[in-house]
Amino acid sequence: MSNRNERIFSLPFLMILVLSVISGSASYMVNPVLPAYLVSRGAPMEITGIISSLMSLVALFCRPFAGAASDRFNKKKIMVLSYVLSIGCLFLYSKANTVPMIIFVRILNGIAFSLSGTTSMAFSADFLPLSRLGEGLGYVGIGTVVSTMIGPQVGDFIGTRFGMEQIFVWASVLNAVCAVGTALIPYHPAVREKQEKFVFRLSDFFAFDLMIYVFLICMISVGNGILLYYLKDYGLARGIANISLYYTVSSITTVLTKPFTGKWLDRKGIAYTLYPAFVISAIFAVCFARAESLPLILVAAVLKSIGQGSGQSAIQAESVRQLGINRSGVASSTCFIGMDLGNVLGPAIGAFVISKSGYGPLFNGYAILLLLCIPIYWFYSRKNHVKPEQ
């Protein structure tokens, strides 16, 4: 294991932050143009959404295996492998001319995405002191947000100037930079006995003792799933112009607040972070239920970024703390499973409630669900003797 001290910004951790922005930007260069690119390669428009979402579905099923591998094998080598797989997928996208071939590449892309996404948090945690884990993982989250702001803009510029195929070429180059950069990171993993590496238990694939956190992070992610699919339609239904500014304000708020919410977690503990996070997130939902103009939407964007950002980071950091660094891989994959489930349930719940009652009841009901998480966690912490301050 890497040498651990109280300093966050070591050279390896700084390299990880930079590379996470680069790899995330490569992904967000490709994702927005993928449906149009699939049509240009012969895929019918009506199935482009299914093919595009296939990567996330495959990643959901692969995460437990990625987490177990992360805890058993060299995390740095797994990260390099994920980047190499991504390069291969981007090359194959440019060569695929049939729908079955495109589906195969998308499945392979989901495996690579699962490896990199699950292992990256565990790999980052190896270079952070446990006492500042919340703050450190908050910086990793900032890298993800920055990449969502950079990637689509760069991809649009390349596609407009040089054509869509060049987006895949440059995304491959960025992944190659990440593969080389990751290989150069100084890293000394824990030495395991050979026989131990290949002995797996059910708990190596899913951390059942984190079920409460899976539930809580799922509830947080339900809001993401709803807004991902219905924000534009919500704006049209309410007559709110420029509603896409929600994403800009949300991203900026996340970048500005994550270091502070991470420090709060490290100093005060999980309970004093989660309770305010769910209250703030519930207020965001009420704002959306009542919003008839853009200003209230932007206030909601700020509230959601603070509430969700602090709650999600707190759960991820606490999961690693609870299981220990040696099981950070399964801690990471278990958290991601909860997030993936929320992203899947959100649109499904949204479609049902919107068709029956509209957006007001949808967001008011979501606010109630978020507030119910507070007594649920309170009873859990009392039963399991979780101290409010750590």
Question: What would you say this structure looks like, in words?
Answer:
The structure is a single chain. By secondary structure, this protein is an all-alpha fold. It has 2 domains: 11-203, MFS general substrate transporter like domains (Growth Hormone, Chain: A), CATH 1.20.1250.20; 206-383, Growth Hormone, Chain: A. Helix content is 79%, strand content 0%. It has 14 helices and no strands. The chain has helices at residues 11-30, 34-40, 48-72, 75-95, 99-125, 133-162, 164-183, 194-197, 211-238, 245-268, 271-290, 294-323, 328-356, 359-383. Helix 1 (11-30) packs parallel to helix 6, helix 4 (75-95) packs antiparallel against helix 7 (164-183) and helix 10 (245-268) packs parallel to helix 12 (294-323). The longest helix has 30 residues, at 133-162. The two termini are 24 Å apart. Residues 1-5 have low confidence and may be disordered.
CATH superfamily of the largest domain: MFS general substrate transporter like domains
Number of helices: 14
Number of domains: 2
Radius of gyration: 21 Å
Helix content: over 70%
Give the ordered list of helices and strands: HHHHHHHHHHHHHH
Mean pLDDT: 82
For the terminal residues, how far apart are their CA atoms?
Answer: 24 Å
CATH class of the largest domain: Mainly Alpha
- Class based on secondary structure composition and strand pairing: mainly alpha
Largest sheet: none
Q: In CATH terms, what is the architecture of the largest domain? A: Up-down Bundle
Percent range for β-strand residues: under 5%
